[in-house]
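Build the 3D complex.
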Amino acid sequence: MANPKSTRLVQTYKHTSPGIACRFDPTGNYLFVSSQDNAIQRWNLGDGKMVLFQGHKSWVRGIAFHPAAKTMYSGDYAGKILAWPIDAAKPQPAKIIDAHQGWVRAVAVSPDGSLLASAGNDHLVKLWSLPEGKLSREFAGHDCHVYNVCFHPDGKTLVSADHKGAVHAWDLASGKIVKSFDASVLAKYDTTFRATIGGIRSMTFNADGSLLACAGITGVTNAFAGIGNPIVLLFDYQSGKKIQSLVPSASFRGTAWGVEFHPEGFIIGVGGGQGGALWYWKANQNKAFHTVKLPNVARDLSLHRDGKRLAIPFYDNCARVYAMS
Amino acid sequence: MKCTYACNSAEHEVSRRQFLAGSASAALGAMGFSGMVTPAAAKQLEKSQKRVLLIWLAGGVSQLETWDPKPGTPTGGPFQAIPTSVPGVHISELLPHTAKQMHRMALIRGINTRENNHAKGAIIMHTGRPEDPRTNYPHLGSAMAKLLGPEDSPLPGYIHVTPRGAAGFNKKDAGFLGPKYASITLADGKPPENLLRPKELSVQSDLKRNQLREKLNRRFGQRRRTADTEIYTQSYEQALQLMARHRIFDNTHESPKYLDLYGRHDFGQHCLLARRMLEAGVTFVKVTHSNYDTHHENFNFHIEQMGEFDKTFATLLDDLADRGMLDSTLVIVMSEFGRTPRINQRFGRDHWGTAWSIALAGCGIKGGAVAGKTNAHGTAVVDRQVNGGHLFHTYFRALGLNSKRNYYINQQPIPMADPKAEAIEEILA
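Done.
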């Protein structure tokens, strides 16, 4: 059993560049961390050794793994997706997909491993057949940058979310939008700044697909400095209705950059802005039941397959692993 | 220092005639060419009338996301550099359309104004000097309205198109030159209020009303003439002439093609309006694009803002060139400062006056020239460091003006540009 209230730092992995995103691999042996030097670090959780994956020409925010093939897919802000053998001693990209015009902001692999989905600044969501990496289908329906994408656990539906808070569920067979969710509180057009601030910064389903979580920033009062409040919206997938707005229990300014459902039913989020924080929620309570103050600005979140460890990449060049025990 | 330019001193009468480089068009212009030349020649003279378009990227655009990219470095951010129409010159990938215009442009990459405050940085960039409590220096627009503008121009010499805020008359911008050269703000690109004669007022009644006002003004002016009373009178006369030219403020007279090319967003329409006003004879137009003060999410915001700027700006240069106006129009793209090479914890960049860039195009500018260089991470200028004074000398010289002359205010000489600085010769045509 995980015990959120016993959360403690168990490992710090220090690099030379601020972290952007992180994921534990499906085997649970490695932590992959992308950073502002365009590289991806592979940290061996056993011996603490690090290997750099170099090949991207821009920052990587999207990282996903094939469930069985020991392949990592990483999407970058140059519009490319690179496929990597995760175990390689001297990793080289096995495939480079010219995926989007503009940034690739998120990638996801279908539960059966046959499809890769990507979301980009060209307003498109794309499906790629695996392992070939050939374009299988395009979904056009967003009118702005698409920030996130994930598969429903049933493998029949894909959900994408954009800069303005529009969230669409696409039927993979027909390519049509089957339902939409309103997450527009995670975006605001700032009339002084004359631009939109926000977007869905993290998105995930719970294990049975009944709940969808979308994380970001709301209540922005100053777009120049990013003054707003982190929030995670919980949607009932079947009805499409919002059932909860998860917020910190104490004042915190910044963005919720990562969200995960724990198999035991609670929800975990991290935020960064003016400092960093880790929050634990129950789906039926909007305020966090436990908060861990973090040593720096958190930028993403990954839950280990053992359900007891969390990884967070930070601005201070470190990725830290926390144990909920 | 209060302007009493109604003193009629010879010194005060220094104007464009004395500063222009002596071209025939300048001589004819000074004589008032209307009615003295053929329509074709007049059109040619109008085109050669020197003008300035300032595009003000409010809040401080990032030099790293525009004119001086450093891809693949710790300060470079996620964007790539792309080649331009000038071999060897690269700019940010956020400016693909502008990159095709580089042969018409020059970049100044070595600016160090040592100022990270919005208001103080804006003063340096608008006046060519740091704030000086002893002297209220005029904005570039006011200076150009005086030095380049026809004496009897029916239009304001300095018009500022803003994306929001209040319309108005900005006496402060003119500094010691006096309110005659103040700027007029067109808020949201809308024409001055009450530009058209109210329907309930007949032409005849309006005429009589103005005749009475002129009579009273003349009587008052004989005994109490000051700069303020003069501009008061002049503003009425200018307003009448503006009313007759109200169409220049209305983009709906443009073809849909131009409306689309410039972009239907505010910045696009404001730049189209700027071109219309420059073409109609306004000497100095400033268009503000907002906002670049990206302490948070610098990269996302620059995608949005540069996405608007890029195509519009490239269209504007093409349009000015197609109309034969680019050779006589100096185009300046600048901010109050640049942004820090250091990327902060919110994916933002902060204020940075130490090593940054601006871009110029058009009149007097050597296309494709690049002056100044920053180090590999963009943290310091390593070659050809310049400040606001150098920029002012450069603008003046590009426009054919002698930047080393003085204004004479109350018989006191005041250098037009900082005498400690020089023009950046290598970017001048």
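Chain A has a mean pLDDT of 97.
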